[in-house]
Amino acid sequence: MKTFALGLASVVLGSALLTVPAAAHGFDTCTQEPKDKWQSQADAEAAATEAGYTVTRSKIVGSCYEVYAKDKAGKKFELYYNPVDLKLVEKHDD
Question: Which superkingdom does the taxonomy of this entry point to (predicted)?
């Protein structure tokens, strides 16, 4: 019985630890569309630039393009774009 309880506790703890990094990192669900329908990552960077940001880098996070950028005042932001229509889905202060 103790072995079962320890095994169950390990599974529960392990599952919790796997979800924490995603939640701590930020927003990661922007679309359900397959990647062959996505616009390019460079297009997401261009959308941020057109919105007045200076892009420092970008990456794919979940089903989003995450663009790291600064506004005109130098404040850092993480911008999450839907890769299909390039709409800004979420914005976090960095």
Answer: Bacteria
